[in-house]
Amino acid sequence: MKSIRDGFGEALEELGKRNKDVVVLTADLADSTRVKGFADKFPDRFFQVGVAEQALVTVAAGMAEAGKIPFTTSYAVFSPGRTWEQIKVTASLNNVPVKIVGAHAGFGASMYGATHESLEDIALMRVIPNMVVVSPCDYEEARKATMAIAENGKPSYLRLARQESPIITKFGDKFEIGKANILHEGRNPQVAIIGTGPILAEALEAAKELKESEIEVVVINLHTIKPIDEQALIHYAKITGGVVTVEEHQINGGMGSAVAEVLARNFPVPIEFIGVHDSFGESALNPDELWKKFGLKKENIIEAVKKVILRKNS
Amino acid sequence: MIKLSPSELQEIAGRVRRDVINMIYKAQTGHPGGSLSATEILVALYFGIMDKGDHFFLSNGHVCPALYSVLAESGHFPKSELSGYATLGSELQGHPERTRLKGIENTSGPLGLGLAQAAGYAVWKKDSFIYCMTSDAEHDEGNHWEAVNFAAKYKLSNLIQFVDRNRVQIEGTVEEIMPLGNLREKYLASDWNVLEIDGHDFSEIFRIVEEAKSLKTAPSVIIANTTFGKGVSFMENNPDWHAKAPNKEEYQKAMEELK
Which of A22, A223, B202, B223 is the most buried (most CB within 10 A)? Predict the structure, then answer.
């Protein structure tokens, strides 16, 4: 168990050494967004803007125009939550490589309640032209994703979970922006489970249990939501004929919606959506309590897979 | 309006501080520093300042443990509900929500949004006084200053803002993280009435509110100088206690000091 935000913070320090153009800005959240290491090592390339998210991203846009690669950090509810129009215009329409890092995404800030839980950020970011949207599933992938967006030359959103979570990818696994990874592939799979973020650990658990009842699935890690890997999605829709999407986000406009858009145009199959169904979160001791309450657990995924199989056969 | 003696008010403030520490210790989450600096102002608002029809908007919602305790003390809900703070299913969320809890006028937590809501409300409630509490650090937010201009333009003399000037924010002192310059002069230059008090002194709080109410041409800001973490020696002026729950030993020490 390790946290995704730690993978980001460690990669950022590495980037600081490798590339002198990488700069970091934060809105009074250096420690919890894990940029304190970078700040201590490279104080001349670190900017504390105060609780001022709008300045955070717009100042960064100016720095990007000046040739820098700015990583901006706050909680996802505040940025991109509060900073959407600023990002649209000054990062994306300008087309400069501002990196929006949204921490405590999903139910990460579970104890703080709905005001601090970010269940809309994927939708907010994927709708903006030019924007790259990446949502790593574990510590290892967070490291690679951070390195990758530093070098892509584009405005990019990096979605980070707060809590420690299982490590489900390996150090040596290939990570390429826009290329989905297969985490598990059963023989002649009947359903494709497509997920993003640390909740993929639940999907892998579901796959294990389904196998015991002789239901084979493929589990796809859609770490990049934009640009989306159309080829992989269509390929596995054809092989399986049914899809379950899994995300710690609103169903409306999220990763599942992005998958459905691709499949509706190219190869329609029955889809079930695991995520939050048009409601706000609330306070809880940890994200797991909320995954249970909002139906994001292994059991819910298993049920959705069985439903898709029924729909395929009806 | 309730009229309580200074010693009665101090007793309530003492209970509120103990509630704050109890809630945050039990939930192992919350913001003790700001909750303890805001205590006297919140007690004064609900035990003497606010009349029927008056409204209170909390902008720095993270200090809600103190507000929850004051709301319970003033009879909005049973004190037994405080123990559910920030747990699954409780009406007392980690940050206050208007639709969940009686007595909460605005959902808050994300900073810089409260004064604007209070101003919008004040436009249409000229026959009552609208109070708003903000933190000094949330003066970093642009949205706050947009509301400062709005309230001055529409001469919202029924709007009275308390700034909990505790000079601490998440990662350090306000002076270190983002200096605010001369807050008094900034408000004066924005055509607000500016008053300044010791935010832990009940007699000063009541006196200054009466003065603010008498000023008829502009909104008023009361810069309330307070001590972050007031009443718990190891929390006072220490940014580590912005959002941190005490362990057992710290809890016992804090409760001993707040006896």
Answer: A223
CATH 3.40.50.920 location in chain A? 181-313
Closest residue to B140, CB basis, from A51, A77, A285: A51
Residue A290's nearest CA partner among B89, B62, B24, B101 is B89
The CATH number of residue B129's host domain is 3.40.50.970
Identify the residue whose tokens are 């306000």.
Answer: B174
Q: In what order do the strands lie in the sheet with A224-226?
A: A46-48, A22-26, A69-75, A99-103, A156-159, A132-134, A224-226
Please give, rounded to a whole number of angstroms, the shortest distance from the CA of A107 to a CA of chain B: 13
Answer yes or no: do A28 and B97 touch at CB < 8 A: no
> What are the pLDDT digits (tens) for B149-185?
999 999 999 999 999 999 999 999 999 999 999 999 9
Pairing of strands A217-221, A181-185: antiparallel
Query: Distance (Å, rounded) from C-alpha B180 to C-alpha B187?
Result: 11
Tens-place pLDDT, residues A142-184: 999 999 999 999 999 999 999 999 999 999 999 999 999 999 9
For the stretch B36-54, pLDDT in tens is 999 999 999 999 999 999 9
Q: Do residue B169 and residue A28 have CB atoms under 8 angstroms apart?
A: yes
* Domain A181-313, CATH class in plain words: alpha beta
Average of per-residue pLDDT across A88-93: 96
Residue B120: inside a domain, yes or no?
yes
User: What total of structural domains would you count in chain B?
Assistant: 1
Structure ipTM = 0.89
CATH architecture under which domain A2-165 falls: 3-Layer(aba) Sandwich (3.40)
Cα–Cα distance measured from residue B35 to residue B42, given in angstroms and rounded to the nearest whole number: 10
